Write a sequence for this structure.
């Protein structure tokens, strides 16, 4: 059985994103979906002593209502990347693996990005490599596959010749499972169990950017991500 997963691009994504990449044979970034201003396309959270802190990439949105993610431009009028790097360096100064990953994060963030999706995709691809996930990230905008909300996903499954579609649980509100079945495609719900691992700054906080795991656990991060499929065991 071969599996397809489809997710919108995210900025420094959380662990559930990489779980879907790892569990799929084909992974599509839905980059021509509409940009959601208060979603995860241009922001994510890391941890401080006072709780989660947002890292947000400023984007141009005035007069651009309805723009697609791959049309959304980074607002380069402020030194946002340098500010974020200072924040990460300060909050993770005592993290065991900050010197292992931060230089590469810095190199990527400081490139002169124009399109948000290109920034998101570069970070996601590098993070996949850190998690030991060797997978091509296809872009929906380049596949010439159409259809409505459910139909396009079914057509993407047909395009790749898969028999299983892996979906996050939040899609249960709209995914037409029967329509997938009528096309010979099973639907598998992700049912992601967030792992618990050593963190800085007090009690454990879940659903942060996956860089929190990488900076704290390093090369063992892949094993921690794998543990999510076995009930999220604590990494010692």
């Amino acid at each position: 059985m071969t599996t397809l997963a489809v997710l919108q691009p995210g900025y420094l994504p959380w662990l559930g994103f990489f779980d879907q990449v790892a569990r799929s044979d084909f992974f599509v970034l839905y980059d021509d979906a509409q940009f959601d201003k208060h979603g995860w396309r241009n922001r994510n959270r890391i941890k401080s002593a006072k709780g989660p802190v947002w890292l947000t990439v400023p984007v141009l949105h005035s007069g651009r209502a309805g723009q697609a993610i791959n049309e959304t431009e980074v607002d380069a009028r402020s030194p946002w990347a340098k500010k974020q790097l200072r924040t990460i360096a300060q909050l993770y100064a005592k993290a065991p693996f900050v010197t292992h990953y931060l230089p590469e994060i810095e190199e990527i963030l400081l490139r002169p990005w124009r399109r948000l999706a290109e920034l998101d995709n570069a970070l996601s691809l590098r993070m996949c490599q850190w998690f030991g996930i060797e997978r091509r990230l296809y872009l929906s905008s380049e596949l010439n596959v159409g259809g409505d909300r459910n139909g396009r996903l079914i057509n993407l499954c047909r395009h790749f010749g898969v028999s299983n579609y892996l979906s996050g649980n939040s899609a249960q509100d709209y995914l037409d499972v029967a329509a997938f079945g009528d096309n010979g495609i099973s639907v598998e719900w992700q049912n992601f169990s967030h792992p618990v691992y050593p963190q800085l700054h007090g009690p454990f906080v879940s659903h942060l950017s996956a860089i929190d795991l990488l900076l704290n656990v390093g090369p063992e991060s892949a094993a921690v991500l794998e543990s999510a499929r076995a009930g999220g065991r604590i990494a010692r």
